[in-house]
Amino acid sequence: MQYTEYGLNDDRKALCRGVRELCARYGESYWQEVDRVQAYPEAFVRALTEGGYLAAMIPESYGGLGLGVTEGGLILEEINRSGGTAAACHAQMYTMGTVLRHGSPAQKERYLPPIAKGQLRLQAFGVTEPDAGSDTTSISTTAARRGDRYLVNGRKVFISRVKQSDLMLLLVRTTPKEQRGKRTEGLSVLLVDLRQAVGHGLEVRGIETMMNHHTNELTFENLEVPAENLVGEEGQGFRYILSSMNAERILIASESIGDGRYFVERSVAYANQRVVFDKPIGQNQGVQYPIARAYAAVEAARLMRDRAAEMFDQGENPGAEANMAKLLGADAAWQAANACMDTHGGYAYTREYGIERKFRETRLYLTAPVTNNMVLNYVSQNVLGLPRS
Amino acid sequence: MNIVVPIKSVIDVELNIRVQEGKIAKDGMSYIISKWDENAIEAALQLKEKHGGEVTVVSVGPDRASESLRKALAMGADKAVHVNDPAAEDSDSFGFAKILAKVAQRGPFDLIITGKQAQDTDMGGTGPILAELLGLPQVYNVIKLESDEPSTLKLNRLGHQGQEMVELKLPALIAANDSLNEPRLASLRGIMAAKKKPLDVLKLADLGLSPDEVGAKGARVRTLEFQPPKRRAAGKKFEGDAEEVTRKVMDLLANEAKIFA
Questions:
Q1: Which of A39, A215, A262, B37 is the most exposed place for a label (fewest CB within 10 A)?
Q2: Mind telling me the catalytic residues of A?
Q3: Does the beta carbon of A10 lie under 8 angstroms from any beta carbon of chain B?
Q4: pLDDT > 70: what percent of chain B?
């Protein structure tokens, strides 16, 4: 199957090719091995960092490439399409956005250039808590101001890549729930230097998952964070989180789309080549149709992603489009994953083929970073004006 | 050190190449830089990094060749020349060499680096003819390259029986083997910078060449047709006692396949 690149200008084609050529050096056996031993894909992430790809969205004035979410999305899409796992490092691309948009000039000067160079990793964002999953405004991890510092206490769960980060953004409660004005107030974002915090008030415990994903449970016990590490204004943290969501949705949708294209391409190749009952299995419509249907779904999700990304880069608010792209992308990838499993028959379950690895990995996008039901809530209530559930 | 690197844009051999009516089907195929040419680019960039100067990449081909040139620019080449003329299509090695010679003569150069052959036709003719046309010494199939001073290269070339160590005074032409180096990946910054680097598009007339000298008309070698490789016949499977099977396989290898003859 040939690569279709319609709708891409020459610059973006060149970008995609650059990523594809890099990914070609980290093939199926590489990803299978890191999956088998549950290792962080350090060599791949280093190559991607050295290639400047993770600095794509950092402005040129801070040493990045100054590209948009469109290009960021294409990079992540190509990684997943190649069989790789962008989830290992996607957050390095966009977590800095909160510092960029809401940080002080001093914070930006201090952190963004080394992040752009790849000398500092900021790819962890502590939001979710054991008792506050999707209900972000109910978090209970607190930061109490004591002189020139905050004392942080509480717990977080499913915080990814903490062990592979130097810095972490952390959503904390700075005003007790009873005293806050609006439901969305009283939360703040702190920049935590993990190199100093771990073992000094912050304990990190890895969580084993069904795929090679480096996520953790965090316990804060009187962790001291300098007050100057507050990002933006105290009490406005939830607003900052919301403002970063559209970009994140678009980028995650891009990974799903990349997965979807991987599954479709693998399915087509196998259906053409595998001969059973003296003919290629792809000649059977029972095999063809699920692949064709998945392909249509993936391409439709891609159009929605493209529209969301275009709006974002033009400074418009693509809340609806970004959310729908995430929903459609995750669903399409899952549909394509199942078609690919069915196409490969028993071989789909063997480690050797790599399909089962991708199958496990792409399942996550239905749930994280936001569940598809929460997206449907958003579309129902914020886009269609249905009553709040 | 000014270096010229001729590159060829070839069909990605990883793809399923189809033959239709004796010709390679070109629709929907993607094109890449012929792999040995990537080694040539890498060698040129390393020499430039050591001694300074400029690397110019040249390609003869239709519109799509510009993508390969942009990629070479993204890797770090300084400028590109694209000879894009329908009359140049279907040139043989001699025709391509004539065009490349004219391009090389447009400016002063110290070194030309080619791949040892093109990945599509595997001819390996253009480089040697180019060296002859320009009166340059040439060293082929280079697997190791050192250069302490810009006027001289120390090279190892691979032959059938071993290696030959050569000292080469410039100007000259060398051809890269793929074990010479590991071609670098273009960085995102390089890709972004590539679109701002000069890419000259030339016609044959700009080089003082007439359409009769090159292309199908000027070709001394004519390609009659392409044929897809024959499908390999199914192999044989042996089962049973290891000693017995080994004896049987050895017998067949010796007497039927005659591989020890």
A1: A39
A2: 248
A3: yes
A4: 100
